[in-house]
Structure formats: structure tokens, C-alpha cells
Amino acid sequence: MLHARASALLALPFCLLAGSAHSHPHVWVDYDLTAVFEQGRIVALRQDWSFDEDFSASVLTDVAKHHGKGAFSPAEIANLKKSAFSNLRNYDYFNHVWASDKPVAVGKEVKDFEPRLDGDRLAYRFTVVLPQPVDPHAGPVRIGIWDDTYYVDVGPAKGHPPHLEGPGAEGCKASIGEDKKHPIYFGSVFPPSVQISC
Length: 198
Prior knowledge:
The protein is of the alpha+beta class. The chain has helices spanning 2-8, 53-64, 74-84, and strands at residues 27-38, 41-51, 95-99, 102-104, 110-118, 121-134, 141-145, 152-156, 163-165, 173-178, 192-197. Helix 1 (2-8) crosses helix 2. The chain is globular. The termini are far apart.
């Protein structure tokens, strides 16, 4: 059943879901991305993820035991992080980064994890810390957030353009569009990515 499989999605290794020629999205995530600058370089990626209603209901029932009202308790937050988030570190939180078309390592360190409810939808806010700062002044930086297996359809939230924040972000701009260089799902899907140039 969808709920049983989706509820395990963020807790089980994604290798169990990968490799099927018949895969297609079972979970949908809308994201809002902010590139955080320090001294003119990108040091972190702050993200807001909003899950579809079916996946949200499944997680709230099976993981958080939450009734959909009020803020999450500290115990619920800890359980969500352990059972329905932390495993994503093995997949770089679906983050892909290139600087001047060269791949950049994505950090395993995450700070400020904060789950919440937006109506009936489960949402996460968190910040991925890059192990090495990236300088967009040296060449364009491209940031993609997607699941290579396409079991999860991750895309930018409508009406939420990417943001740049922090010292040195002035004079830089961010745009979003189809990433023709990094197709997924056997080359049939061009995921959106954010390009930052200064």
C-alpha cells in the first residue's frame, strides 16, 4: 500500500527503492531554497520542504503519533528526526551542487531541524552546512534538489523563488530552470535547479 511504503520512505535505505524501471513518484515535496553567504561565499543551504497530504498523514500516524493540531512536542520532533529524516544524510538530503560545472561535496551536517504543520501538510525546515564554502564569484554555482530514483518528486514551490542571504550576497542573482545537464529517471526527466551567478 502507498501509505505503508511512503511511511518507510525516509527511514529505509533508498537503495531498496532504486533501480526499478517502473518507478515513478510516490511522494511529492515542494521546496523553498535559501543560499546562505558569508564573506561572499555560499556556506549553507537552508531549505523548507512541504510534503504531500498522503505522505504527511502517514508520517503523522506512524512516526510522530500526532493528531494534526498544535506544535510538535520535543519527543515528537526527536522521533521525526530519527525515524523520518536522519537517513537522508546518506543521500546528501537530495542536494546536488556544482561550481563551474564541477561537482561539489555536500555536507552531512544539518542544523536547525524544525518540523511543523502547514494545514494538513508536514513541513521540514533545516540547513545543510557545506563542508567547504563555494565562491559564486569564481564561476556560476548550480544547486539541484532531487531524488535520482524519482521515487520522490522534489520541486520548487510555486511562487517561491530562490533566495540569497548573508554578507556578500549583494550583486549576486539566482534563477531557476530545467537542468539539461543532469537528467534523471533514465534520462527522461530534466529536474529543476537553481543557478547562482555574481
